Amino acid sequence: MAPTKEEERKLKDYKDDSPVKLGPAEKFLKAVLDIPFAFKRVDAMLYMANFESEVEYLKKSFQTLENACEELRTSRMFLKLLEAVLKTGNRMNVGTNRGDAHAFKLDTLLKLVDVKGADGKTTLLHFVVQEIIRTEGARLSDADQTQSSTVNEDARCRKLGLQVVSSLSSELTNVKKAAAMDSEVLNSDVLKLSRGIENISDVLRLNEKMASDESLEKFSESMNKFMKMAEEEIIRIQAHESVALSLVKEITEYFHGNSTKEEAHPFRIFMVVRDFLTVLERGRPRYGSGSDDETASP
């Protein structure tokens, strides 16, 4: 609502004895214009008012990125699933130049539903998940020595295995949060925070040029105290940003080998995993059935 230069000139030139009467809004603006560099001071105070919440938002965002990287690196179930996909792919490609692969890009996970089994319905993802359900169910069943073997042992193993696979999405909650973030927006927010300090410095310089006034001195004192705190906080935020982005780069290289191609979209790795988890959740009802996975093969 700050007036334009032309509006500001007209308001300053206005005389009280003018036949044209000002409305309430114009009277207010005219009064505000009598305050030295009023709108710059308002901007400075708005920056101060929003500073704490902006800092808290950035801290949480960078911590989420760090946690997401840790989840991808340490989730046993996620790594188990990747291992199963790699082994299945190698079995399918025996005798070809793709039959002895040591790794694959995570983008491959999104293509698992495109590979159909002999029945035309079972996908490669379904087959891979069923294999994990079997192995994980057997592992947990063997570890549980308190329950004796029964006729329904296979069903019990399947149930245990399905619970493990179903827990994958909850293990990667920060990955899903990170997938919704935009690296450019985060960087822009950090820059805005930094540039806001420069604006306050400009206001303080203008303040020093004014004649000595008690209210201006109090304003300067308040601004200087805030600036010292804010500058230290911004340095910490910038350091936190650097660490978080470094970890994202490392995890991208860990899974993709080269992060150079991902520089335009540094958080894409989280988006791929999130989309895969969505596909996994959609197929969940079938994973527990076990009706057609015994005969279908990829």
From TrEMBL:
GO terms for molecular function: actin filament binding. GO terms for biological process: actin nucleation. It comes from the Eukaryota. Pfam families: FH2. Residues 1-298 form the FH2 domain. Belongs to the formin-like family. Class-I subfamily. This is Formin-like protein.
